[in-house]
Amino acid sequence: MASNAQEVNAATHVATFSIEVPQLKTTRVIWVYLPINYATTTKKYPVIYMHDGQNLFDAKTSYAGEWNIDETLDSIKAQVIVIGIENGRDKRIEELTPFKNEKYGGGNADAYLDFIVTTLKPKIDATYRTKSNAHNTCIMGSSLGGLASFYAAIKYPNIFGKVGCFSPSFWFGRNEMKNLLANTKNFNTKVYFLCGDNEGDSDVIPDLNAVEYWVNTKRCECKKLNKKVIIKGGQHNEKLWRENFKKAYLWLF
């Protein structure tokens, strides 16, 4: 199914391996971040699954700057495993969107998420010391990755108990999302919503507010299961997501 993990940088505890993706008829590179003390303990750790893996750990592989995930987590001695999933490049829109868009196409997120749930996650749980229940499993992404992550929480509530939803592209299939929410009865996932007020899309905040309002109708706000952060001057880019990742992690975990 996958090749042996190859160390990228021992100092940052990040390794990679390639895995077959039968659902998409391709292969993907997977990045694995392990906490600083992983090799010297027998502890089990929660796991964050993150989209756009080439943007998370290394500026050389990133599209427009990295998220500095490893440096950030090392700096706070975070006790978590991070799994970065390579995006499909020219297939990215198709794979990260649950609905079709008249202009951009898309709509193949079901297959992509099936890969994560039925192929990748079992591999990770069998290879590493993970806490595999939903309470300790998070899915996180930005832009279309934010949309895919929120959709994953609705589709797989027993798999993903936490979501990092950064600058989510809720405009992509807006009506379909509304219908999905209207037909979803329960939602108990912990969600960290983040966006900037200068993202270049005038609908990003209203769309996020509408989804947050729906979330609040499904449970008592007293449970404090969701948090919304809007960054003044924040733009739709890696800088925004990089600078706010630590706070999101600390709140979610």
Question: Your description of this structure?
Answer:
By secondary structure, the chain is α/β, with parallel strands linked by helices. The protein is 32% helix and 21% strand. It is built from seven helices and nine strands. It has helices at 69-75, 92-95, 109-127, 144-155, 174-182, 204-217, 238-252; strands spanning 6-9, 14-21, 26-33, 47-50, 81-85, 137-142, 162-166, 190-196, 226-231. Strands 1-2-3-5-4-6-7-8-9 form a nine-stranded mixed beta sheet, sandwiched between helices. α5 (174-182) links the parallel β7 (162-166) and β8.
List keywords for this structure.
253 residues; alpha/beta; 7 helices
Quick take:
The protein has 253 residues and is an alpha/beta fold. Helix content is 32%, strand content 21%.
Number of helices: 7
- Rounded to an integer in angstroms, the radius of gyration calculated over CA atoms is 17 Å
Head-to-tail CA distance between termini: 31 Å
Total E-strand runs: 9
Shape, per Cα inertia axes? globular
| Backbone structural class | alpha/beta
Helix proportion of residues, in percent?
A: 25-40%
* Overall pLDDT metric: 92
Q: In which order are the strands of the major sheet placed?
A: 1-2-3-5-4-6-7-8-9
Low-confidence stretches: 1-11
